[in-house]
Structure formats: C-alpha cells, structure tokens
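Anyone up for a design puzzle?
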C-alpha cells in the first residue's frame, strides 16, 4: 500500500515538466498542502508525511529554484533531512554525470568529468574566475576526475525574472566571466545562460559559471 501511495505522488510530480517554470514551486506547495489536509491525514502513511515535510524544507533551502524542484520531483520517496546520514540522489541531465548529495551534505554535488575538462576548470578557479567551486577532487582509475562542488544558486534567467532590478549588475558580471575565460585561454564549451547561476551574498547578486564538462584549454594562442 505504501509503495502504491508513493508511486501515486511521484506520478503527480512527473506532471511538473508540463507546468510553466514560474509556477512549479507553487504547484509543489499546493500539492503537498492538499495531501496534508486534516481530512486526508489518516490516509497518508508516516513515511509520505515525512517526505512532504522534507520536501517543504528543501523548497525553502533552495528558494524554490528550478534545481530544487527538479531534485524533489525526481527523488520523492528517498529524501533525507539535513541532519541525517549522507545519501546520493538522482538528477537527470545531458552530458557528464551529476550526483546531488542529500542528508547532512545537502547542497553539495559530485560531478564526474574527464581530465582535460578538469584541468580547464581548475585553471579557471586558480585564476579566481567566478565559477562553480572545486571543493575537493580525486582522480579515478580511468583517468577521469570526481569533483565535489556545491549548489550555487538559481539559473540566470530564473533569477533575472524575479529580480529585474539586477539586470545591469548580473549582465556585467556575466561579461566579466566570459572576458576572463578568453584572457586565460579557457574554452568552456557551452556558455549558454542555463550554465550561469546567481545567488545572493551579503545582499548582492553573485554570478557564477557552472558545468565544465566540455571545457578545455584553448590551443589557439599557444
């Protein structure tokens, strides 16, 4: 019975891809609110109630970002609160493998990339370009790299839609990142706006470039 009820919730969550991005956070809150109504509580097992509680907390921690919403919708049923053991979560994407971590390492991410891309990413960080940080890394037996990084904020246009007053500032920072990449002969490979993210730090928007899985050191100027 429990598995069927979790599956029913996940089937509802799967509809989220058909909902406009700007309404997905509200959709989740309404869904979880309806499931938690008093007249329905007796039908909801404790595990589902716990998953809803964790989902609401994650929505808050991720500021209802599209990343957080996707994380919840793909992992409902195995989410863990932030004070428990570490878990590995699912996150479907194209390109290299991305593994979000849950539990006490919530908001940390493991990326698996090839050696050339790692070298370019590390060079960008060493030269203090505003990018997704390399927190720890390990070379794997196949010559690739496993990198621990962290969630760095909402997608560029997602943030801009919520904070139009920041238009000039975040486009300025985006240009600085691209200029710095060119200066240091780093080719990111796909600098579309979905790979720029923004988070608030000390009441100021900070733009970072993420996802270096196609990055390389340019040979044009060598």
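Challenge accepted. My sequence:
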């Amino acid at each position: 019975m429990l598995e069927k009820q979790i599956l029913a919730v996940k089937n509802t969550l799967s509809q989220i891809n058909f909902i406009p991005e700007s309404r997905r956070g509200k959709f989740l809150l309404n869904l979880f609110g309806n499931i938690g109504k008093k007249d329905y509580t007796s039908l909801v097992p404790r595990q589902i109630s716990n998953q809803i509680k964790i989902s609401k907390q994650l929505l808050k921690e991720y500021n209802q970002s599209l990343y957080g919403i996707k994380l919840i919708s793909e992992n409902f049923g195995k989410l863990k609160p932030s004070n428990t053991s570490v878990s590995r979560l699912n996150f479907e994407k194209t390109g290299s493998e991305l593994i979000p971590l849950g539990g006490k390492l919530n908001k940390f991410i493991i990326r698996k990339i090839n050696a050339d891309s790692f070298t370019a990413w590390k060079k960008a960080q060493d030269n203090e370009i505003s990018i997704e940080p390399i927190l720890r890394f390990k070379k794997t037996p196949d010559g690739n790299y496993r990198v621990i990084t962290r969630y760095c904020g909402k997608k560029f246009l997602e943030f801009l839609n919520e904070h139009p007053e920041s238009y000039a500032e975040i486009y300025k920072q985006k240009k600085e990142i691209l200029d710095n990449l060119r200066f240091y002969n780093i080719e990111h490979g796909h600098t579309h706006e979905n790979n720029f993210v923004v988070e608030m730090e000390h009441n100021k928007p900070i733009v970072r470039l993420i996802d270096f899985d196609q990055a390389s050191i340019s040979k044009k100027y060598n």
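A detail worth pointing out: The chain has a mean pLDDT of 88.
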